[in-house]
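To whoever is on call:

I kicked off a structure prediction for a single chain this morning and the downstream step that reads the tokens threw a length-mismatch warning. I double-checked the sequence; it's 262 residues and nothing unusual in it as far as I can see. Pasting both halves so you can look.
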Amino acid sequence: MKCNSCGGIILDGSKFCMYCGCEARMELSCSHCGFKAIPSEALFCPACGMRLTLKVDDYWDNLKIGDYYYSDGSFSTHLDQSKTCVGIVYSLETTVEEKKHGWTHGQIVALEDAGGGGRYPWAGSWGALLAAHVDKWRDARRDKNGYLYSNSIKYGAFAAARSYLALLPLGKTSGWYLPSVGQWVAMIENLGQISIPEDSFGRFDGDKNWRSKLEFLKFSTDVYWTSLQKGSLYSWCVNMNGGNITPYGKSSLGKVRPISAI
């Protein structure tokens, strides 16, 4: 925030300016139309009516799918170019395991692939079962335990997800991890408005516009790993070339798109 007296940049929430000592009055500016001097308690811009960038500690009830989430822990409906956006909200739910740690508000997906778009094997010994495995598509579709699996596996695609460089607000998130099948389904359905029914056997290419609907997430025409195994030799992956979720050999190479609970 900026001091209204001297113009110095001071920490959000400051009561007094560290440069001139004057009392700090926090005001907002609209990232959509640029209107300034909006009172801090305002939720909408008085000039254009757009919802303002919000402080998550105070306004979690306003969080919605598609919002931009920033490195300072705030979020907004319209992209605020003055902040560092680290992800897009794709779900307003978190898992039981995540709730235990206080991450109860939802999940975000990273804006880019991990490792600068590199390709990685799934993990570990190709003939070993390193985590829970689900053989049937209907069951895999419901599995959202990517955080749990990512805590137990330290190699390959899992390591790439954890080392993704976009900085999250300290202590406010789960950190980046590899999404499970059900989390990928939620991401595709909620952000792309594409249906993946239980009887689809993982296919979402029935929607002829599926590529354009997901274009803003900058997916490559490649396979993306999930954190869920299918037997000892295969793991589930999202095929962004064919438009389906399918088993893929663990020793093969695939892309990684991290997510985080908030």
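Update from on-call: the warning came from a stale cache, not from the record. Cleared it. Sanity check on the structure: The CA atoms of residues 18 and 204 lie 55 Å apart.
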